Amino acid sequence: MRKATFIVITIILGAIGYRLHSRSTDSYQLAQQQALAQFAALPGYRLLKQQEPQLWQEVRESFLHSLAAGHSQQQAIGEVRGQLTELVNLRIVKADDRAVTDYIAVAVQEMQALNSVSAESCYRFLYPQVSGGVNIGTLLSSQMNQADQQALEQLFLHSLGSDRTRDIKAAHNALNEVVKRLYPHWGNQLQQLNQPEDLATDHQKLCVMSIDLYRTILKLPQPEAANLIRQMVVG
User: Fold this and answer.
1) What is the separation, in whole angstroms, between the first and last Cα of the chain?
2) According to the model, what pLDDT value does residue 1 have?
3) If you average pLDDT over residues 55-77, what whole number do you get?
4) What percent of the chain has pLDDT over 90?
5) Which of 70, 90, 140, 196 can pair with 144 through a Cys bridge, CB separation 3.0 to 4.6 Å?
6) Are 92 and 214 in contact, with CB atoms under 8 Å apart?
7) DSSP 52
8) Residue 5 and residue 128: Cα distance in Å, rounded?
9) Counting Cβ atoms within 10 Å, is residue 149 exposed (0-12), middle (13-18) or buried (19+)?
10) Number of domains comprising the chain
């Protein structure tokens, strides 16, 4: 009788455990689906889903993988942001003047905010190809992340055509004007902007110079600034 009772209890406990496990799994999957739906509706990412379905699938998988690793939704969004770098550069060459300059203006704000965290964070943001990038989702405020997403939205929205015509001579002239404005303060140290991977480079100084550079570019008339930025991206 005791043996039979033990078997019955085991079966009952097993059934309860199965139900609890099922509910736990269902809750996890539901939470994951909700997080993915919220992510897919964010400015910038909702257009990515429509315009670049292959890249969206890669970003989506990375986002879900990050969640599965126990990361917060905001952290996961920050982690996948770096996957858009190449696309952003391609779109800058296609976007209208306002979308280009507005995007760079937000990037300058991000540089300044990251520099207040640490010079290394700013450096990693500026040169992800050298340093591996940074997670703005965890290092920047929610307001700054929202501004980043809105800038992405406008860039993607206004860059669906062919590449904009670039005036290379005008870009060189504009760059010379920018350097002329910066040189009295920075002198030959400006050359460090061309050598970000140099181990001897002062990352703090490089970050501040980069902020100064882009702020000065944005003071140019918008068409000149956008033309120069496009040329800088193309190289």
Assistant:
1) 84
2) 45
3) 95
4) 78
5) 140
6) no
7) -
8) 64
9) middle
10) 1
Q: What DSSP string describes 158-204?
A: T--SSPPP--HHHHHHHHHHHHHHHHHHHGGGGGGGG-TT-TTS-HH
Residue 198 φ then ψ, to 5°: -65, 125
What's the chain's Rg over C-alpha atoms? 24
Lookup result for tokens 């061309």: 194
From the number of C-beta atoms within 10 Å of its C-beta (0-12, 13-18, 19+), residue 201 rates as middle
Tell me if the pTM is above 0.90: no
Within a 10 A sphere around the Cβ of 105, how many other Cβ atoms?
15
Residue pointed to by tokens 């379905």: 53
The pLDDT tens digits of the residues spanning 132-172 come to 889 999 999 999 999 999 999 999 999 999 999 999 999 99
The answer to whether residue 191 scores a pLDDT higher than 50 is: yes
Per DSSP, the residues of 89-108 read HHHHHHS-HHHHHHHHHHHH
User: Is residue 105 a part of any domain in this protein?
Assistant: yes
Residue given tokens 């993607």 in the structure block: 156
Q: Is residue 228 part of a domain?
A: yes
In a domain, 145, yes or no: yes
Does residue 15 fall inside a structural domain?
Answer: no
Q: Which domain holds residue 182?
A: 85-234
User: Which amino acid is it at 219?
Assistant: K
Which amino acid makes up residue 187? G
Percent of the chain with pLDDT over 70: 88
